Fold each of these.
Amino acid sequence: MRSFFGRVIRRRAASRARVATTVRILDGAGATIDDGLAIFFPAPHSYTGEDVLELHVHGSPAVAAGTLGALLAAGARLAGPGEFTKRAFLAGKVDLAEAEAIGALVASEHRSAARAAAAGLAGGLTREVENAHAAIAELLDALAASLDFPDEVEAPAARDLEARVNALGARLHALRDDWERGRVVRDGVAVAIVGAPNAGKSSLFNALLAQDRALVSEIAGTTRDTLEETAMLPGGIAARLIDTAGMRTVDNGESGAQLEMAGIARSHAALTEASVALVVVDASAPLSPEALNVLERTRDTTRVILFNKADLGRAAFDERSPSESEALLGSALDPSSVARIARALAETALAGDTPDLTRPQLASARQADAALAAERSLAFAAETLARGDPADLIVTDLMNAAAALDDLLGRNATEAMLERIFATFCIGK
């Protein structure tokens, strides 16, 4: 490594382990690219467990590109996706659960997602899974002892075994439940803003974003396509807001009919794909056929309804049916109304149940599948005991549960599995 880097850098002083040293970075012709810093991490006290040299250069794109080009010319290669974390896993520096938490942390786009990933990176998930694994091992040891030495070791009481198995299953179920509820916080929620033309959808879109992103006009049909932006809702939830064209029946003979019909088709597609519909109705006038149609269409959808333009009247709000009894009355121009709508969206997305991001969090669908497999095996064992069948029949189920937890932590990871996992990482990390 020293001879390799000697072709790229010149030290101004002898380097020491884990101490930043001033260096000059040179290109292949010996010309200076930058004056930067080098930090050497000798094995095994590095992130990957190998000798690692970090170069810190100034933030100019030209300097970064020049440094990279010099390193490649000297014989280096670009790291693959997640290669450093994969090396750390193979060196035993992190387990697979922690590696996936690193990937989730790097990919997090907002604070709540980062908090959830950090909880896994701190080892909380690994400890929880290892504790469950140890509890299963204790049950297996107790059963093995009673089977091998029946005259000396009393078999565990069936009811006690059943209670312990059910308690373990409940712990794994809680992990999966947190995963399901936490997905909204980690990944965000897609919110389609739908309604009849000129209901104030774009004004509400801008108000939730706190910026003028969509064009607003009193002329119906101004929005002809979907617009997407991300807004933060209370509780740190990222909402992907989708402003859509007004939904109505268009006469083919109208000017611009084909363009508007294409926009309406995209509105319907956005409504189908979104997790939550934000239905906007003009409250200032009696309910129009178009508004009634949108309300009818979204009744089986997870939705928040706003009767907008309350500053101009509430006729439509007073006409609403019992199906819209939970609707909000307000105005996209009123900050307090916008705040109420944001809270309602957050509560609807979470179904009123905010996950505790300080608790251990499963970091991927792969981990959730492994936890589910372990939970199912424990459920089979509990059913066997509840029927009064011999306790030794649950040994296979307990072993299957332990194997699933091993898979969760990556103890039996195949190369194909590692390739799939680390392929989702950013380059290098």
Amino acid sequence: MPPDSVAPRRTPAERRRWLALVSLCIGQLMIVLDATIVNVALPSIQTSLHFSPASLAWVVNGYFIAFGGLLLLMGRLGDLVGRRRVFLSGLAAFSAASLLCGLAPTGELLVLARFAQGMAAAAVSAMVLAILVTLFPTPRQTARAMSVYACVASAGGAIGLLLGGVLTAALSWHWIFFVNLPIGVAALVLGFALIPVHVGSGLRHGVDVLGAVLVTAAPSLAIYTILQASENGWTTMRTLLLGVGAVVLGASFVAVETRVRTPLMPLRVFRSRQVTGANLVRALFPVGLFGSLYLGALYLQNVLGYDSLHTGLAFLPQSLAIGTFSMFVTGRLVARFSAKATLIPGLLLVAAGLALFARMPVGASYVVDILPVTLLIGIGAGLVFMPSVALAMAGARPEDTGVASGLANVSLQIGAALGVAVLAGVSTGHVRSLLADGVPARVALASGYHLALVVAVGCLLAATAIGALVLRGAPRAAAVALGRAEVSLGAD
């Protein structure tokens, strides 16, 4: 056995390094937990804080928008002011925002606190892998550390669903946020003591703050437009003006990025057909994945009468399938066939699961109706994450690898936020119409969820078409190597 595989692990420096990894993994676990733990508590939150069906989506989207919109900025800040400083600041801010979420007395304050959580999550997530690869410089060390990190991150989704159900059923929805406090404090103490200081290059090199504001504001306004249109109508003057405002903000972001000295997102990366196509796939795909969790939790509790604990258990097979395939199966399939040949069947499996979900009866049976849906979506998602990021990065020039990786993450988060908004808007509008016609509430809700899921199927089929027609295959070995870090996003 090579000397570096045994001897260095006995030195104090190596033990310190692995303890520092514990801090990084705890931080990532906290971020992953928060992406899934909220879903099973949504009906309880809606009842407690009097959210309307459409505005409830902000509990999820406030987190996703801030997370996705600020990932690139936080990555840049880490380079400029120090990765350790940004990571620890993110942990402290996330813990504080979690406390505010748990204490929120109104829906508006909860959504604001969720935005704050998303901002802090971006700081933590953007730094984890950057610190990890500096702590473990040799290929063997990096691979071993990445395996531990991926295992923890993949397990986080399943833990979040279970923990969310247990805490909501045994205590209240407030505790799904309070649970972050001891986790955050533990990660802070370990990180402060063990993560080495990194001195950044200084703010004089420039930060594209305006770009970060615009890339967060544009999807926020677009989502607000979608959600209020479901209540007030798509052709009202208010909706049209809001839509124009969202387009103007998006165009302003593009204009800023073409002129600023250090752009947050260099637009040259979109000259690559591969990068553009892969990121379109990654933006459309989470409409189905996160839409199934969002609508699924509401369906199981509002239509089938499940409590929060049984809802978490119902979706546990989906998270386990994502983690299992991401870690143990997908890499081998990519190595044998190709990233593209693995991606397309994965997208089709998710679409098939959503199509079955869209036909689920009001009196559904778990084994016959729900379990097959969770397995199809889970297996399909497990086949999509790693190949999609590998394809996106394979199309980037060497000097743009970091930007391409960040863009792949942003596409996923913003796609999830816009997707949940669209599905919530479609569902809410249809339910309102049916209730006005005298349709029973449970039937109306089921029909609204079904229509939204049909829209999600359409998004997955569009992603499949783009993947088949636009993307080229990435080299197999490179695809596996580039996709290792993406395992964690299966739970995000």
Amino acid sequence: MKSGTETSAAPIVRFSNVDFSYQRETVLAGVNLDIAPRDFAWVVGPNGGGKTTLVKLILGLLRPERGSVQVFGTNPANARRRVGYMPQQARLDLSF
């Protein structure tokens, strides 16, 4: 929903036609997503639904097979220090 006073700022996160697979298992297909400044976003879904993959793409820990991901208008790895992540479980995952 957009208010009348909102500016048309560039999105903080932009997925353009993103595909990602682990070996032959497609996890994300044709994902288009814009998260604008001051938006709140949730990622909800079943186990194996691609939630963690989506976050790892935003952080630049994974690269899409097709399409592009931009965070703050640049490559996700370049913007990693500007992104916060709050896990559902309170355990340390050193590979994240």
Amino acid sequence: MSGIQLVALAPHPPIIIASVGRGDREKVARTVTAMEELSREIAALDPDTIVLISPHGPIFQDAAAIFDGETLEGDLSNFGAPGEKVKVQVDTEFIDHLKEKAR
């Protein structure tokens, strides 16, 4: 299927991760439950591409920044959990298509 299948806003305080939140994780139990449900919804759709829009990167008044590297990776070292890591492949074909359409 092509086109947008789902749009979601996902507040994500670091304490939703068990190794960060420890005893404080219960304070955000509803957020954890909502994120788990969102995860199930995304898995059920089995999308080819997931587009993430985040305020945690470069921000411009008159432009949008698009990361166009091959992979994105990070960890939660700043929150005391360096073992929590993520690495994902970037859909470079999709990004090339966006850049072409933006010209």
